[in-house]
Amino acid sequence: MKITRILNNSAVISENQDHEEIIALGKGIAYGKKVGDEFDKQKIYKIFTPLSDSQRKLLLETIHETDPIFFQISQKIVDRLKHEENIELADSVYITLTDHLATSVERAKKGLYLSNKFIWEVKNYYPKEYRYGLWALKLLDAQFDLNFPEDEAGFIAVHIISGELGNDISDFSKSVDFIKSITKIVRYYFHIDIDYQSLNYNRFAVHLKFFWKAMMYKKDQSSFGDLSREILNVIKNSDIEAYKCALKIKEYISEKYNYELNNEEIMYLAIHINKIVHGEEK
């Protein structure tokens, strides 16, 4: 591929085989090059194909104003999520995450740190994403000789969550409200204190997270596969209360989100509720 424009030593504009404009990032990819030269594809760690003029403008501004090291750190985070969790983040979130990291480091060098009002929710409702936030924090601390508080891991996790949802950060707070509301229904129905650190609750929260995404953006009646064995176990345990609680949740979702749960979705909720209440392992 040939360079049509050089943005900096680590970013160029070119065209793919379909003659679409691409923006390629790679360490030293444009060093010693000029427009019209071929560049080393092996150095590329990220390619963007902007879908709109606004996305292109945002990307070019971010590249112009941001040290390439922050793109590289973001790519390490994205690569690890893809490799270990098979999670693909939306390109738009990759850009906002890079900008966030650069801004956070700039503030930290001045001794300014932000508190995260969602830190409890992130830790308890999105523990996997929070763990990756902590890992990313170690990268920043080592690279820039800083000592970020855990609040920053929460901010990074929010960007990861937004990337999973495929939408902007405001969706994170909406999904948190959804998980919080459903959990509250379970707590009040059974008059119990939930162990938010338990494996069963973690699975429940993960299920709600992906259910929220499907409910809000796909609007389809998703199939969860053959639940005959799990349904049989629920029946054997005579856990009718878990099923009744799931029906309460169905009513809430119908009124709040105008979404009707099908029988399979209700039973799947009941299975998770049963495990939380009785502490059963899958």
UniProtKB/TrEMBL annotation:
GO terms for biological process: regulation of DNA-templated transcription. This is PRD domain-containing protein. PROSITE patterns: PRD_2. PANTHER family: CRYPTIC BETA-GLUCOSIDE BGL OPERON ANTITERMINATOR. Keywords: Repeat. Residues 65-170, 171-282 form the PRD domain. One of its GO terms (molecular function) is RNA binding.
